[in-house]
Each structure stands twice: as structure tokens, then as C-alpha cells.
Design goal:
By secondary structure, the protein is of the alpha/beta class. It contains 14 helices and 27 strands. Helix 1 runs parallel beside helix 4 and helix 2 crosses helix 8. The radius of gyration is 24 Å and the shape is globular.
């Protein structure tokens, strides 16, 4: 990556493959994913330097898997730690719900939830981007005009000295936050989903490491709803909801922050340094349109949600992962741009689920009516005592729309739309997580060699997509004896998944979602034909 101030002539034709507007975490992930695929990426960022204050404090296991694909797997421990337990209590100190997220690994091979220090995350993503020669970042440049062209778009930007220049790209993705310039440029308003609550956020760097039990605590107290959570190694966050009649200007002061910390938690300046305090409006909204031709939206530019399910940043990373492989196929000439119609179709359904989950949690947490809170407590405590309160550890949902294998009635076939689990596997070269051992892209993982059930045209089609074929060997197989193209399922995770969906193999998309499963024989050819049929409206000549 270069930190450039030059004109639009980094490449012979002066045109980038993708121009990313906004270089926060979602823009950083998308830029890295595309550049790792060999795409020419230019990023425009209005701020001259990275923002050094924390905002988000957690991401889920799927987001960690995406971050690994974006080049920072080896650095996650430097800015993150397993979130551990998360408890909701009422104002009287009675537990309403307790969640214990997997600390070793979950479905995606990473902890179900990671608490992180966002400046450290961004530092790692930016550092990896600097290793990519086809990624150029223009800092201190404000987007001022966006014009569609016959083969893409042209963006006018202005630097800090008032110098304007035009940048050309085949595609433009707005990762520029809630006040997105790109979203305004395509005329896509937010649909307000009717959730608005102001909270005072206090981030502290603790003088001494100490254990918090539980590690993450939500106090559903109508007197003052409040939160304390891990914010990454050595960092801690406390949050206080503003009550009716309280003004943002009065609450957003260091004095108020310390007063509330001392009043409710006994935390004083002797315990740590206040890194930041700010009042945020927690809200829920989605953009009406996520795509207009070759202009696209991702992250907060496309959707906003309360933080109570920890899904804001994770949802943005899912956007980036979904977009990256589809843009790559289009830019490679394998598919035409109609493929991108599936982006909003797939991601909107996922985001609506995450927003719904976040808003429902928020309605529980933000209750300030004493009687309504007492009724809530009675229901939740009764459910907990009857062991009916079994909250999801993550808002995982299969793909319900878009590019997945369906039956004649349009229903998802078994396994289709699931996220493929990522276990540790072994091979002669060593052991590791499946994605790292096998590589990324389309992957056909099977108990047999699926190519024996394919005709020449079907094999050629999969080869044109760069599909990797992986034979799965059972736990207990000597890794030293494993032939090329095979791995040992050391924990039986993938084999167990295949058994659950009644399959001998699955065809996995580059974003790790299962397109479809096969029981072998003719079903394998039918699966490949189904993928070709799904892509056919967008498929270039094979």
C-alpha cells in the first residue's frame, strides 16, 4: 500500500478496479480482501490520520474469520481477548440471563465473541494493507462529487490545501459511515426503525489488570440502565443511559462521567485513566437502496443498529466478505455485474435479523418504567428458573435468500445457506484452521473425490471459478500419510456436519457459506449445475 497524494494515474489506464470511500474498519477489511485477490484498490479517507479512540468493543467468531482472511490472524491476540461471560441483572442484583461465549473456538474456529481495542484492530489492518502494492490510500481527501461513467464512476476529491482532482474506478463502495457521502449521492435515505436512546460512553485504561465477575455485565435497572464490559486487553467500558429530561451537553462531561462511575461502581481516577467519554445515540436504520449500478454501500453507510448484540461492526465485515468475492468474479470477467444484485438481497436479510435481535435486547435493557421493568424481571426470572431462557450465543442465521441451492419449490435444500464450520485440520505440512490450511475461494470439501461424479463441462465450470477440491479424512488418520488435496478432520467437526445434513460433500462459497450439499453420485452433478444456473443470469461465456 502507498499513502499517495498523486493524481489518478497509478495504473496505465488511470482507472482503479474498486474505489473505497472511507477507511474505517469496514473499508480496511474490504480493501485488504480485494487487494489480496489482486485487484487495484484506491481508498479515499477524509481524515489525515487514523482515529485513535475506541468505538466498537466486540466482534463475533465469523468476523474473526473474516479478519483472518483480511490478513491479521496473527495479530488478533494483540488487541483482542475472548469476551467470556455476559450477564444481565436487574436493579436488585438478580440474574436475568447469563451467556457464556465459547472462549477456545466456536463454529468459525475463533471465540464466539472477542472483546477488542479498536485502535489496535485498525493498526493491524492498516499495517497489513501497507504490504499490498496494489492498494493506495489517499488520506486527508474529502469526496465532493460522484459521477457515473460508461464503465464505472468518477469521484472528485479535495485535499487539505483545497486542491481538487478526479479519480476513476470501475466500482465505488461507500464505507463512509452513518453520514455517508456515497449514500447521499445515490439518493438512498435511511429507513428509521424507531429505536433512539442516548447513552454516555466511558472508556478507561485501567492501572492494574483485575478480574471482573462477570466479565461483561448489563444492569437492567429502571433507575439507570447501565453497562460494564471488556474493551480489549487492559481496557474497560462503562455505559449509562440518559434519562428523560437529561441533556447531552450536561452529561457529556468528564465530571459527570466520573460521578456516575463512582456512584454506581465505585470506580475513581485512582483506578485508571479516562481515555474518552462521549454521548452516542443508539439507533436502528437501514438504507433503502444498497446499490445503484456500480455504486455500492457497506457497513454503517448501509445499516445502523444498537450495540446490545455486538453486531454493528461484525455486520459490516460480513458486507465486505460478501462483496469482495462477487466484485472479484465480475472484475475477472467471469460474471457480469448482475451478480451484485445478490449482495443486497443476501445481506439485507442478515442485517434485518441482527437489527431485530439488537432492538429486542435494547427494549429489555432500556426500560425505565418501574412497573414494566418488574413485569419483565418476573418473566425472565421464571424462564431462567425453568431453564427456558437459552439465548443465542451469536446471531448466526443461514442465508435465506440469494445464491443457495433450492428445490423445485424454491426452498433451501439441507445445508444450503449454512456457514461451513471451520475446525482444525491436519496434513503432512502441519495442523491449523481449515481456511489457512486449504486456502480461500470456492471449496468443494467431500468424503470422496467429487470430480468422479462430474462430466467434463461441470469440471471445467468449477475450474473456471478456481475451485479447490478437498478430500476429508477421518480423525485418527496419520497426517504423514495424507495425500495432496486431503486433510484430516482431527476433531470430527466437518464429518459431523456432513452427517447432520445427510451429505458426503458440500460446495462452499468464497465467503464460507455453503452453496449446497451432495450425497454423491448424480446429486453432485446436479449441485454443480445448480450453481451454474444460479450464476447464469450473470455468467460470462465459459
Amino acid at each position: 500500500m502507498s499513502e499517495a497524494t498523486a493524481g489518478p494515474h497509478w495504473w496505465p489506464d488511470g482507472t482503479a478496479d474498486v474505489l473505497v470511500v472511507g477507511y474505517g474498519p469496514v473499508g480496511q477489511v474490504l480493501a485488504n480482501l480485494l487487494a489480496r485477490r489482486g485487484r487495484r484498490v484506491v481508498v479515499v479517507e477524509r481524515h489525515p490520520r487514523p482515529y485513535t479512540m475506541p468505538r466498537a468493543v466486540a466482534f463475533d467468531g465469523e468476523a474473526a474469520r473474516i479478519l483472518a482472511a483480511a490478513g491479521v490472524a496473527d495479530h488478533l491476540a494483540s488487541f483482542g481477548e475472548p469476551s467470556g461471560d455476559y450477564t444481565w441483572r436487574n436493579g436488585a442484583g438478580l440474574d436475568l440471563v447469563s451467556i457464556d461465549a465459547a472462549e477456545v473456538h466456536g463454529r468459525n474456529g475463533w471465540p464466539e465473541s472477542t472483546s477488542m481495542y479498536q485502535p489496535g484492530l485498525e493498526e493491524a489492518l492498516i499495517a497489513y494493507g501497507k504490504r499490498l502494492p496494489n492498494l493506495t490510500v489517499l488520506r486527508g481527501h474529502v469526496a465532493t462529487a460522484l459521477t457515473r461513467t460508461a464503465d464505472g464512476a468518477e469521484l472528485e476529491v479535495e485535499d487539505g490545501e483545497g486542491v481538487r482532482r478526479r479519480l476513476r474506478a470501475r466500482w465505488v463502495v461507500g464505507c463512509d459511515g452513518a453520514n455517508s457521502f456515497v449514500r447521499r449521492s445515490i439518493g438512498s435515505d435511511f429507513d428509521d426503525l424507531g429505536f433512539h436512546h442516548e447513552w454516555l460512553i466511558c472508556d478507561l485504561v485501567l492501572h492494574d489488570r483485575r478480574e471482573f465477575v462477570p466479565n461483561n455485565l448489563q444492569i437492567c435497572d429502571p433507575v439507570r440502565p447501565r453497562t460494564q464490559v471488556s474493551a480489549g486487553p487492559g481496557h474497560r467500558r462503562w455505559e449509562f443511559m440518559l434519562l428523560p429530561g437529561e441533556r447531552k451537553a450536561d452529561m457529556d462531561t468528564r465530571e459527570t462521567a466520573w460521578r456516575l462511575l463512582d456512584e454506581w461502581y465505585g470506580v475513581t481516577p485512582a483506578d485508571g485513566i479516562m481515555e474518552r467519554h462521549a454521548v452516542y445515540t443508539f439507533q436502528a436504520a437501514t438504507a433503502r437502496h444498497w446499490r445503484d449500478g456500480r455504486l455500492l454501500l457497506a457497513g454503517d453507510a448501509a445499516h445502523l443498529m444498537p450495540p446490545f448484540a455486538g453486531q454493528g461492526m461484525s455486520s459490516g465485515f460480513r458486507d465486505a466478505a460478501n462483496l469482495a468475492w462477487k466484485l472479484d468474479l465480475v472484475l475477472a470477467g467471469r460474471c457480469d455485474e448482475a451478480l451484485l444484485d445478490s449482495y443486497a438481497e443476501e445481506r439485507r436479510a442478515h442485517v434485518q435479523h441482527a437489527i431485530g435481535m439488537s432492538v429486542n435486547l435494547g427494549k429489555v435493557i432500556c426500560q425505565t418504567d418501574a412497573k414494566a421493568a418488574a413485569d419483565r424481571d418476573a418473566v425472565m426470572i421464571a424462564a431462567r428458573e425453568r431453564k427456558l431462557a437459552r439465548p443465542q450465543q451469536s446471531p448466526f442465521q443461514p442465508l435465506t435468500k440469494g445464491l443457495v441451492w433450492r428445490d423445485e419449490k424454491g426452498r433451501r435444500r439441507p445445508g444450503a445457506g449454512d456457514q461451513a464450520p471451520q475446525p482444525r485440520v491436519a496434513a503432512p505440512t502441519g495442523s491449523g484452521l481449515f481456511d489457512e490450511a486449504v486456502g480461500r475461494g470456492f471449496v468443494f470439501v467431500s468424503l470422496d473425490d467429487p470430480r468422479q461424479d462430474l462430466d467434463a463441462g461441470q469440471s471445467a465450470f468449477l475450474d473456471s471459478l478456481g475451485t479447490r477440491f478437498v478430500r476429508l479424512l477421518p480423525a485418527g488418520t496419520d497426517p504423514a500419510s495424507v495425500p495432496p488435496g486431503s486433510v484430516v478432520d482431527t476433531e470430527g467437526t466437518l464429518g459431523g456436519y456432513l452427517e447432520d445434513v445427510g451429505a458426503r460433500g458440500v460446495l462452499v462459497r468464497p465467503d464460507t457459506y455453503v452453496f449446497g450439499a451432495t450425497s454423491g453420485g448424480p446429486a453432485t452433478g446436479a449441485l454443480v449445475d445448480a450453481l451454474r444456473d444460479c450464476l447464469r443470469p450473470a455468467l460470462a461465456a465459459v
